[in-house]
Amino acid sequence: MTPKKKGAAEPRRPRPEWDEYFMNIARVVALRGNCLRRRVAAIIVKDEQIISTGYNGTPRGVKNCFEGGCERCASDLPSGAGLGECVCSHAEENAIAQAAYHGIALADATLYCTMSPCLICARMIINAGIREVVFENEYEFSARTKRLFREAGVKFRQLSEPQRRPAG
Q: Alpha-carbon distance 13 to 105, whole Å?
């Protein structure tokens, strides 16, 4: 092994851009999701600081989905069917609720999510004052949801492929 010269700089690994950094964190948060069907996470950021996180699963104090807390998720219903019977909350909903629980204002924040938001979550995002949504994967991101965001002045964008590389 060659000794390091005094004063020689260490080679620098490339630092991730902010979008990549926050989405990588969101991917880790998604691992906490307790829904049997899908693991999704949301991170809410303001001034390049994480102010709230959320993942999909049953509400606080309710048996976890993977422990039988949601009959709909445990059923063999196809994706998208029986959603009115699902007791799980979406990641965006949980991140917004978590901020409210702790008295954290979300006005002018950015939400990073591993999946595109549904119409119901879009309404919550708008009413919480979040100004931008950055998502990784598209999941039924309807034209109505996009129109609603545009009308409310909420920017939205999907990360491009180079920004989706795994951490490491």
A: 35
Q: Mean pLDDT score of the chain, rounded to an integer? A: 88
Query: Catalytic one among 85, 92, 136, 138?
Result: 92
Instruction: Report pLDDT for 167.
Output: 45
Spatial separation of the C-alpha atoms in residues 25 and 50, rounded to whole Å: 10
102 vs 61 pLDDT, higher one: 102
- CA-based angle 158:160:165, to the nearest 5? 115
Geometric angle at alpha carbon 26, from 168 and 157, rounded to 5°: 105
Query: Tokens standing for 74?
Result: 């445990």
> Is 92 among the catalytic positions?
yes
For residue 24, give every residue at least 6 positions away whose Cβ sits within 8 Å of its Cβ, in sequence order, or none. Answer: 16, 166, 167
What phi and psi, each to the nearest 5 degrees, are found at residue 110?
A: -115, 135
Asked if 99 contacts 44 with a C-beta cutoff of 8 angstroms, the reply is yes
Tell me the three state secondary structure of residue 82. coil
* C-alpha distances out from residue 164 to 5, 16, 43, 140, Å: 36, 11, 16, 20
Confidence at 42, pLDDT banded by 50, 70, 90: very high
* pLDDT tens-digit series, residues 130-141: 999 999 999 888
With a cut of 90, say whether residue 62 has pLDDT above it. no
